[in-house]
């Protein structure tokens, strides 16, 4: 018995649902399609959908150039949902997240490095007087500490001397009184791979960096690696799904993404007000670079920067 | 994940037809499949992203029928269904079938059963799927959903597909009976040992009936036969009532054409069949009652602690009779106790 028995014998167009279908699924689908035809003028994939599909499928079946980089047969593949920290109020109900695939034999530090959060790129400080001297150091370089929390164990990033044990406060707090938490331990992130970590599927865990930027992590799936998956180790942790955030545009030109935000600005109509670099300088500084009016200006990194 | 509308009904219809055909041959399934042109279930101008999701959900739905507690025939049907859906899907590369780790030993046992009972076509189909690398071996059967659902969807699968839950049989297995026999013998020997006459125990020591193990076995066999008969009657009754009630069904469906109407039709249709079936089965049941009565009259009077379980099943229905009565019009199942049906006035 071959699968010729399943397929039709004449040429069929999968897009057309025949009139006399006995399947309920098809009847319902046909109605939905007809409704779609009536209401939608141009029926094609929008760019978000194309992007989402691309992200999901771009790495399928990839093989590495160097054979030593191939994922092995018994390798586990974990699917993690990493939620963004809630910045906008509308995110409180449907939290946006990104989905990452991770190999079981990868270290936790590799995942930590792959998580891109907008708070890593913030530049602290007020620069209204010296707009050209906004420092190069982003927060990611300054505050390198981070930890994961899985099942009662804090995995701290200790690769650099600047990294501190952020979890120490929490452990001390839980030990100070009988708060009902079991023994919380603190270990080094770089010593562990995912195969060593005990996990529950569907249970929310935490990733904390920058001292107070917290991301919830949920493991949605663990499975054995498959012939059709991407077998190139270098591509993991692999991002397969990302939330699309609308970027805030400059108030003046409404074209470029905002790079500066001002407070208590006598020249701006609202507080806070966002400007792109060019409009910011044109409005607030004269030809010689002197500051006009009173305001506080901060460099702004839009959360949609990763789109 | 929210389910694909109509898919469950279609799958159940196909599996139901397969169950009616009362065979596990793949040719028969393929005929049913071709009749319904089931491969068109993926048609309809669906874009790539949506198609992936749809195929995943379809395979997941079909996979649920592949595992216990469904009956053997349904599981073989589900295997064929998975094979068909996997091969006719339009996604490239193909979406895989998820099998959880905990289910894998059962599936291997199932495959061994297939080979032992010489259903080589089913075993071959399974082997083909394995070779085609159609399975994802996962930790959990369902891929998780990250949206908080407004309401929890309850999957109600058809009762007929399930293997009649053989709790009595799973409790009183052959091993258990054997052990009981051994203990009983040992007990008898001990009694003989301590009594004056070494060949048989004292009269004062006879506290239990001697052949209760045999009786227990007889009762469980009877229960199993009763259950099988009940299933057969139910299926037969459903068939004959279907033709009568089809007209009522159709008019109801056509007049409103909405889901609510079809749900109402289904409930009415079920209650009709329950009523009709009660009368039919009562007739049968009465016959059976007499025959079982005659055969079992000596056993009716036993009252031992071991028998309490079996006895409780017969006695408590009298107490529960009233509640069973109320439930009869709503559910499709007839209460097991014989005594209830004599008292009911349907």
UniProtKB/TrEMBL annotation, chain A:
Domain of life of the organism encoding this protein: Eukaryota
Lineage: Eukaryota, Metazoa, Chordata, Craniata, Vertebrata
Main localization category: nucleus
One Gene Ontology biological process: snRNA transcription by RNA polymerase III
UniProt-recorded Gene Ontology molecular function terms: bent DNA binding; core promoter sequence-specific DNA binding; RNA polymerase II cis-regulatory region sequence-specific DNA binding; RNA polymerase III type 3 promoter sequence-specific DNA binding
Matching InterPro entries: snRNA-activating_su3
Gene for this chain: Snapc3
This protein's record includes keyword Hydrolase: no
Protein's name according to its UniProt entry: snRNA-activating protein complex subunit 3
Pfam families tied to this protein: SNAPC3
Subunit (UniProt): Part of the SNAPc complex composed of 5 subunits: SNAPC1, SNAPC2, SNAPC3, SNAPC4 and SNAPC5. SNAPC3 interacts with SNAPC1.
Keyword DNA-binding: yes
Family to which the UniProt record says this protein belongs: Belongs to the SNAPC3/SRD2 family.
GO terms for cellular component: nucleus; snRNA-activating protein complex
Keywords per UniProt: DNA-binding, Nucleus, Transcription, Transcription regulation
Organism: Piprites chloris (Wing-barred manakin)
Function: Part of the SNAPc complex required for the transcription of both RNA polymerase II and III small-nuclear RNA genes. Binds to the proximal sequence element (PSE), a non-TATA-box basal promoter element common to these 2 types of genes. Recruits TBP and BRF2 to the U6 snRNA TATA box.
Automatic annotation (TrEMBL), chain B:
Region entry Disordered, spans: 279-346
Bias (Basic and acidic residues) ranges: 312-331
Encoding gene per record: Snapc1
GO MF annotations, alphabetized: sequence-specific DNA binding
InterPro entries per record: SNAPC1 (IPR019188)
Protein name per Swiss-Prot or TrEMBL: SNPC1 protein
Residue stretches of biased makeup (Basic residues): 299-311
GO cellular component: snRNA-activating protein complex
UniProt-listed GO biological process terms: snRNA transcription by RNA polymerase II; snRNA transcription by RNA polymerase III
Domain of life of the organism encoding this protein: Eukaryota
One Pfam family, short name: SNAPC1
């Amino acid at each position: 018995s071959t699968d010729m028995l399943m397929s039709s014998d004449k040429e069929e167009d999968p897009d057309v649902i025949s009139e006399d279908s006995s399947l309920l699924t098809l009847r319902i689908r046909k109605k939905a399609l007809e409704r779609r035809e009536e209401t939608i003028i141009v029926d094609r994939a929008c760019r978000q959908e194309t992007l989402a599909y691309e992200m999901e499928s771009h790495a399928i079946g990839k093989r590495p150039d160097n054979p030593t980089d191939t994922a092995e047969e018994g390798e586990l593949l974990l699917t993690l949902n990493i939620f963004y920290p809630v910045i906008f109020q509308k995110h409180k109900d449907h939290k946006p997240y990104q989905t990452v695939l991770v190999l079981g034999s990868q270290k936790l530090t590799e995942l930590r490095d792959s998580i891109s959060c907008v708070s890593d790129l913030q530049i602290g400080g007020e620069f209204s007087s010296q707009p050209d001297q906004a420092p190069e150091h982003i927060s990611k370089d300054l505050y390198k500490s981070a930890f994961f929390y899985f099942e009662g164990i804090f995995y701290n990033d200790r690769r650099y001397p600047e990294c501190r044990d952020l979890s120490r406060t929490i452990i001390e707090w839980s030990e100070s009184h009988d708060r009902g938490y079991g023994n919380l331990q603190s270990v080094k992130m770089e010593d562990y791979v995912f195969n060593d970590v005990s996990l529950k599927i569907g249970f929310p865990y935490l990733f904390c960096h920058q001292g107070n930027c917290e991301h919830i992590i949920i493991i949605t799936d663990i499975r054995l690696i498959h012939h059709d998956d991407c077998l190139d180790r270098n591509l993991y942790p692999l991002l397969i799904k990302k939330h699309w955030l609308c970027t805030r545009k400059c108030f003046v030109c409404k074209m470029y993404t905002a790079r500066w935000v001002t407070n208590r600005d006598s020249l701006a109509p609202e507080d806070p007000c966002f400007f792109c670099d060019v409009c910011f300088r044109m409005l607030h500084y004269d030809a010689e670079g002197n500051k006009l009016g009173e305001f506080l200006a901060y460099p702004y990194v839009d959360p949609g920067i990763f789109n | 994940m929210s389910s694909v509308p109509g898919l469950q009904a279609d799958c159940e219809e196909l599996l139901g037809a397969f169950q009616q055909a009362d065979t596990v041959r793949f040719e028969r399934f393929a005929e049913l499949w071709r009749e319904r042109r089931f491969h068109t279930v993926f048609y309809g101008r669906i874009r790539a992203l949506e198609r992936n999701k749809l195929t995943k959900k379809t395979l997941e739905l079909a996979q649920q029928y592949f595992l216990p507690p469904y009956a053997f025939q349904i599981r073989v049907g589900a295997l064929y269904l998975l094979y068909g859906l996997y091969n006719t899907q339009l996604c490239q590369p193909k979406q895989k079938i998820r099998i959880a780790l905990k289910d894998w030993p059962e599936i291997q046992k199932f495959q061994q059963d297939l080979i032992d009972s010489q259903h080589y076509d089913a075993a071959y189909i399974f082997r083909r799927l394995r070779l085609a690398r159609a399975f994802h071996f996962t930790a959990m059967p369902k891929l998780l959903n990250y949206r908080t659902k407004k309401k929890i969807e309850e999957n109600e699968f058809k009762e007929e597909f399930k293997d009649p839950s053989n709790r009595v049989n799973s409790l009183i297995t052959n091993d258990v009976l054997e052990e009981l026999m051994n203990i009983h013998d040992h007990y008898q020997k001990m009694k003989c040992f301590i009594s004056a006459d070494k060949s048989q125990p004292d009269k004062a020591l006879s506290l239990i009936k001697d052949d209760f193990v045999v009786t227990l076995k007889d009762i469980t066999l009877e229960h199993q036969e009763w259950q099988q008969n009940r299933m057969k009657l139910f299926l037969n009754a459903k068939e004959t009532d279907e033709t009568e009630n089809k007209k009522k069904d159709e008019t109801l469906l056509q007049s409103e054409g909405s889901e609510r109407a079809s749900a109402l039709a289904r409930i009415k249709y079920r209650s009709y069949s329950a009523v009709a079936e009660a009368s039919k089965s009562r007739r049968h049941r009465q016959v059976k009652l007499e025959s079982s009565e005659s055969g079992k009259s000596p056993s009716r009077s036993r009252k031992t602690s071991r028998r309490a379980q079996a006895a409780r099943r017969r006695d408590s229905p009298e107490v529960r009779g009233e509640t069973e009565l109320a439930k009869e019009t709503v559910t499709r199942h007839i209460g097991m106790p014989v005594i209830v049906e004599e008292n009911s006035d349907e």
